[in-house]
Amino acid sequence: MNAPIPANTPMRQRWQAFMKAAEHGFHVYGSWLVSITWKRFALLSVLLLIGANVLQQLPPFSFSWQLPVETTETIRTPKLPAPPKDLRRGSSENPAKQARKSKPETPAESSTDAETGTEQAAKSSDSKSTVDVDGLRYEVQIDSRGVRIVPRPSTAEAASAASEADSSLPSVDIRLPTEKQRAAVRQAVEEAKRALEEAAEEARHAQADADQAREELEQAQRETSRKTRYRTVHLGDFLDKLAVLIVLASALLKATYKGRLQAEVKAAKATETAEAESLRRQVVEARMAAMQAQVEPHFLFNTLASIDHLIETDPPRASQMQKNLIALLRASMPTMREANANGGVRDLGREMAVIRPYLEILQVRMEERLQSRIDVPDGLLSAEFPPMMIQSLVENAIKHGLEPKAEGGSLTLKAEIVHGKLQVTVADTGLGFGRAATSGTGVGLANIRERLSLLYGKTASVTVSENQPSGTVVTITVPYRTSHQAQEQGAHA
Predict the structure, then answer these.
(1) What is the pLDDT of residues 264-303, one digit of tens each?
(2) Rounded to whole angstroms, what are the CA distances from 442 to 278, 314, 362, 445?
(3) Residue 68: is the preceding peptide bond cis (ω within 30°)?
(4) Is the pTM of this model over 0.90?
(5) What are phi and psi of 357, to 5 degrees?
């Protein structure tokens, strides 16, 4: 029975497809940003900002609407003016004194003055006097009834005419009030005094009310009021902000994506280099194994033939050669497997354990025609060194340098530290490099150089020079480090 398909599978597939497309678009956009210059990027950014501002003015981005917005405002009322000085002063003074200051001169006061004048006039005799004004004579009469000013003609001829004009000329007649009139005036003065006192009291109350209102208004200044205002919103208001955001994000992406691309390119190159070096190392190891497969059977065949011959002619020498062969095989076979397991290196002491029996076997075969000397300090036996290289150099020196020479020669193997590096030298006094009829094709030296390049890069080298008075000197230089240090570095790696 088929399992049911989940309902959300199409949606998930669409989402995955969208994410892949978005990721692809992101990488395409980042690669395009990296491909353009900063100058062109700045120009395109300015054009984008200008285009965003232009689009804001075009439909549909120019459409607008109003949104209500509640705002909080502080009431700022003007400060009330201070009351007039006269009102403040009037409220603090004595009402009676203020009434006296403010009340007008009443007829009672004038009547009182008139009474005083009348009494004084009564005590004295009645008086009359005349005053000439513009040809007219006015007569002033003062008696107990009052004061009269009436016009009088200046001459007797004008008496008749003056009598006719008395009615038209101005005159003044001031009569003193009677006792009843005086009482009424006093009553009116008392009523006016009470009215003034009431007005002063009302002014004080009005001042107090004004002060209280001023305090309330000052307190209202600190209170807030909410008002609703309307803000105009355009559809394209977001375009300029979006343009600025795109420019900033693109600048950041351009600055960082380039480093990422460079890192990816370097990683790809490193991977390709590592794979190429691994392939080259495998090729070199295969060549070395093939060479070893060719050398060891040939060497074993010659050695066994020499032992067979010595058994008949010189049994002690045959026994010694047999022991050297056993020591050579015991030293070479395990160390080859160890060298392959340790990345193609082993210590120099194990290499010497192979070279010494190898040279002794060759000395038995060549007898007096081969003299060998090994000069390797015990302190350098723990230094790491690639396998089979010294053995190849020794074999080439004997095969192409010493064996073709009739009288033979000497072979010297030396190891020393020069400028912080391990230097191993194989020198012979044979015919010289490339001068023997049996000279090789140079494949052995080429393999040695390639192996050194794979193991140490440019820090290792091999040099070939002529020896004096004859022969060849081959020197291999590698970084000096002990096998223990190499194992620690391999463990940390």
Answers:
(1) 777 888 888 777 777 666 666 665 555 554 445 666 767 7
(2) 23, 37, 22, 5
(3) no
(4) no
(5) -65, -30
